[in-house]
Amino acid sequence: MENALCTNIKKLYDNGLYECVIPTASLLCTLLKNDRNVATLEMEYQAMMYLSNANYKEHNYRTACSQLEAVVLQRKTMLRFKSTYLTAIESSYPQFQDAELRYKIAVCYREMGEYNMAINTLQAVKARTPRLNMLLARLLHHHGRGVGKKEKALAYKDVLRECPMSLTSIEALLELGVEGTEVHSMVVNAAALPKNIEWLSSWIKGHAQMYGCKHREASQTFQQLNETQQLHQNEHILTKIGNCLYYDGNYLHAEQYLSLAMMQNPYNVNALTSLAVVYDRNKKKLERSTLIAPLEMRRTREFRSAHWFLHAQLTYSSGKYERALSFTERALDMDERNIEALLLRAGLYFMMQRQRDAVNVFQSIQCLAPYRFEVYKGLVACYVRLKCIKEAQATCTVAVRQFPTSARSFTMFAGTLFRLANPNAVRSAKRFVEKGLQIDEHYAPGIALLASIYQGEGDIRKAIALLKKQVEYRPDAMLFAMLGEMLSKEKDLDAALQYFTLSLRLDATYQRALDGINALPKAARMASSNRPSDKASEPNVATGGNATAATAAAAAAVACSAPNLHRACNRSNHDWLLDYDEAESLELSSPAGPAEDAESDTFSEPFWQAVDGELTN
């Protein structure tokens, strides 16, 4: 009977009926245990082998783990007795070999969350296959507490020696800080590398630039790959271009490439995750029907970390912070290294006035993804709100050195210097923002800050000319509002009303433009009262009175319609720390006021003077 059962269990296993193997093999194991007269070592090993592997296939990881460990011990016993059956079964089933058994044990430990046990299991294998090395590398990279970068990189290098086209391993090495030239040399000199893959060098170069904080250069490298006939419109390359542009703060172009990637594959979660954030930065509503619907699961247990993040981002965009935080926590429970979810958690803490918690999250992200500028921007925003000017200065210094080819880092540093009452700091702020605009002459936050500096110096006409040149190239709600404010101070009320109206057309809820329009009637009345009243000037007074009255009436009409605009587009400003949220971060429209920290002037000078000296050299 036992032999017949073994034969049928083998047939069930060979046909993939693993759920049927489990009860049948369990019965056989019990029979052999209770009847030692017919039980043989080979029969017990075979029954336990099928049972443990069937449980593994059915994702019963805790049960499979204990059974697979028992199989490994039985295998050692059979090796001691030099069993020929062991050689026969392992030649018929390569997945029953010792290395593969230990791989499955490690996977079971990983699924149970016991990462150290999984790492120890794999490290005990002397001759590891690329499959085992890859699993070990991933475990060390993501869960290796106290493991250095060199040890993490060694496992990935072991994979590349035998599989040089393991692009995931190449990207992981570059993320760990391995030089691009070293990785390129390792891949090119591999014996198993196929011929005619010139694109691989550019692929490595692009990732090295991306993880080296040169996001604009990386996007250009990937764009060159996309322009080739062989790789044109590949979804992975399009996603890389979009992500690099997103990391660089170029949200308009990032949206275009990420949308193209979604057109190629509507189930591309990596592209959709970034696209959801970019939509929010561009003040657009993420359409659930067209983008989220293909990824929605009927059962909650099918959700992955990215799915929970998408729901969190949608809820965050609607202003429901508590619910968004709940979805974010679910995303991080599934993947604690989900960078977008971590950034969203920090942003939610910031919006909920929990700055200390936000700082802690940003600092943890800095360890995982130091190439993301949003981390440094978030820390500066938190420190400014906490009135920790010293820490804000130090973070800006690190950001400028980390992102030397980014206009964003120079503009952020200039913004913090602009807050100080020290005239030398303000002059240095001008140098820094000019340096940023040399990198990207149309960077809107830099334009706004430089215009504010010009205004503080009393050269308001130069500020107006700078803003007009920028809005002709790329319309922007904040720059239109700044133009309106400056023209209002110059008594050009008609032009001021025009620019405030243009600002509201782009963002109907922009409070700065609404406040500017509400202030125009008062400015018109002041302009009328200041005109001369002698008879010689009476015609001009009449003309001027009509003009100012018309402006006041138009401003009142727009102001009255503003509540309707607000109801029509009820979206609050969630640009909590990215680029130029002047309400929360740098107060770009105001000249430098008194320092909030009594020691900030004396403490901050070594920071900005040191970086200023580097800039000069």
Automatic annotation (TrEMBL):
TPR repeats lie at residues 305-338, 477-510. One of its GO terms (cellular component) is anaphase-promoting complex. One of its GO terms (biological process) is protein ubiquitination. Keywords: TPR repeat. InterPro entries: TPR-like_helical_dom_sf, TPR_rpt. The keyword Ion transport does not apply. It holds the Pfam family TPR_6. Signal peptide: none annotated. Residues 525-544, 587-617 are annotated as: Disordered. This is Anaphase-promoting complex subunit 7. The lineage of its organism: Eukaryota, Metazoa, Ecdysozoa, Arthropoda, Hexapoda.
